[in-house]
């Protein structure tokens, strides 16, 4: 059983053919999908998909690109949205200093707000970080000192040093199709050392199609290709990697089993 731990089923490119996309993924052995929010205006549609599809779950949160537009989003608004039975996670949230589409201080403040709600609710936080390793790690270390919260780094592309730093904090790491790219040698080496109980796989579809689907819109079905690549890196079978990552998913996102 495979789980796509991060996809955007309501994004253009997938939303128009959502039924066939899900059918194709299920035929490829994908039995669970975490549909991710990036802005407040998406929450209703993302949750509606999870209400309609028994094997799809939802998150609520604000992507760092959208931080400026949501600087005044109240903690209570996010907290209330997490109460929906199909919402099993918070995010994606975090820091993106590569594109800098939002003020960095606003990003930091919103990130900390998401962490606080994760701590209050016990729902895992899905973290986006790009070109912000030091700031992300510093915030995570500071906030962990205030009290534990479950979290994962999605679409991991950071340095091994950052990876080890967040693993030391107890976070989970999710690998996307980027790990299959020819120029991802450092990431491939790090993928071998992620503890077995702390690894997930994802597509981030409709983005980042793995080899051999480069150049195509990414679909949740392609998580199988990423999982096979990671299994080969780690010297295990696809079935073993699928069992490990799905077990990790349901352990981290415990609300999924009741949703």
UniProtKB/TrEMBL annotation:
Keyword Nuclease among record annotations: yes
Keywords of the record: Exonuclease, Hydrolase, Metal-binding, Nuclease
GO cellular component: cytosol
Stored InterPro entries: DNase_TatD-rel_CS (IPR018228), Metal_Hydrolase (IPR032466), TatD-like (IPR001130), TatD/YcfH-like (IPR015991)
Superkingdom of origin organism: Bacteria
Pfam families: TatD_DNase (PF01026)
Binding locations of a divalent metal cation 1: 6, 8, 92, 204
Binding residue positions for a divalent metal cation 2: 128, 154
Gene Ontology molecular function: any one: metal ion binding
Amino-acid biosynthesis keyword on record: no
Family membership: Belongs to the metallo-dependent hydrolases superfamily. TatD-type hydrolase family.
Name of the protein in question: YchF/TatD family DNA exonuclease
Organism expressing this protein natively: Aurantiacibacter arachoides
